[in-house]
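User: Structure with pyridoxal-5'-phosphate, tokens only please.
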Amino acid sequence: MSSQAPLWSALCRQANRISFHMPAHRQGRVFSREWIESLTRCDTTELERTGDLTVPSEHVKEAYDLAAAYFGAGETWFVTTGTTIAIRVMIASALFEGDAIIMPRAVHMAAVHAVALLGLNPHFVTSSDGRRFEDGQPDAESFIAAMRTRPDAKAVYVTCPDYYGRTIDLRMIAVEAHRLGMTLLVDEAHGAHFAAAPGILPPTALSQGADFVVQSAHKTLPALTPASLLHLSKDGIACGRLCPLRVAAMVRVFQTSSPSFMIAASTDLARAVISRQGYAPWQRLTELNRQVVDLLPAYYQRVAPPGSDKSRLVIDYSRLGRGRKEMVAKLDYAGIDAELVDHRRIVFIPAIDHPESDYEILARTLSSVLPAENSLFAERHVRRLKELENLRDSLFSARASWLLTPRQALFGDPSHAERSETMAKVADHAENHCGGAMKMASHAIAPYPPGMPIAWPGENIGERHDTYIQMLQESNVAVYD
Ligand SMILES: Cc1ncc(COP(=O)(O)O)c(C=O)c1O
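Assistant:
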């Protein structure tokens, strides 16, 4: 029997890397010594003195109430099993089996799986004039148009901000959703910090009229992975659009029966820290991000459209004419870990206490990468990038093409008559019309990160999906397929 612990050993070897990624505690460096020492003492269970995270009372309730007051919610839950689970709780609290929900195709896989588990009827947001949405993220007007074509839907589901820190006008969507009697659910996984600095950071989903909001505290706050927050709006509770009792029941359905006190305590403490520190850390981060961009050669461009989260640093490196693998290798060699490197952009998530020395190394490293000299190579690179992005946006913006429902595809018995019949028809059609190229996705097919599917379970997939996946894999992008 081996006494080795390879995972532990490998992780320990990562100790001195420069972390510009989630969790936003920089490998614990943001935590005080006292906090680290008390960490394992907080790893306890439901005792008379500790209370129960699933049936909040006394100090658990006090912590939830302080969080609700800070984030501007009517009620807040700590979900210690990630926003993946908070999304399930949120969707299951707002809809019943068979209900229609309006959402883009490009949502995090957690939402896809919730829709499948609950047997919901997803109605994708598409544009009436065939326009493609960049990275699959529709504008507010397209959400509103989709709501008007399906006024029977019970809820509308929006991701805001997206992985690149971009936001949309949720206020407009909220007004229309409430006019039509729909509940507005917002995946604000990347915006748990917005409440900390209004005016500097984008407005929170709750302040814009969202009913349910989920946030990954671990992504941008000094909290442990996978600390998550589930908020219910004051107005939604008062108007009866949300039912706190149903939420409590759904927390018990989806959350483990041993929720981590350690993670819950870290959520409580993260809220206390950001509320004590106020605007200062976010002002500092926005300033550091601005300064580092000023130091970079002009072939780097910051991606920061109006309304986006300026505490996140997104750099477009496409003018360099260099490929993704090369950029990943350069950063890796300098000891820098970014959150995401796609074919055009690098996403850096700095932590509230990020040292200036990390920024200096980042500026030096990026500046040391020179544009490709071979113009033929650079031209080919630009052509390929355009091709890839066109394909990405057209796949992400496509109308649904269901062969089975997501629930039948993921959980249906393969020998069940309805499923076997559908699969036989798919094979037959592929044989006769597509040279064998038509298939059905039996699960979500998604590049990761960010984990948004180009095909949902039960959808018809073809050559274009294969081409896109192949292009991603050639540049070492992981794809759940
Ligand atoms: C937009 C979005 N929603 C939800 C999630 C799931 O969050 P968690 O990792 O906290 O489960 C992610 C994870 O990256 C995400 O990017």
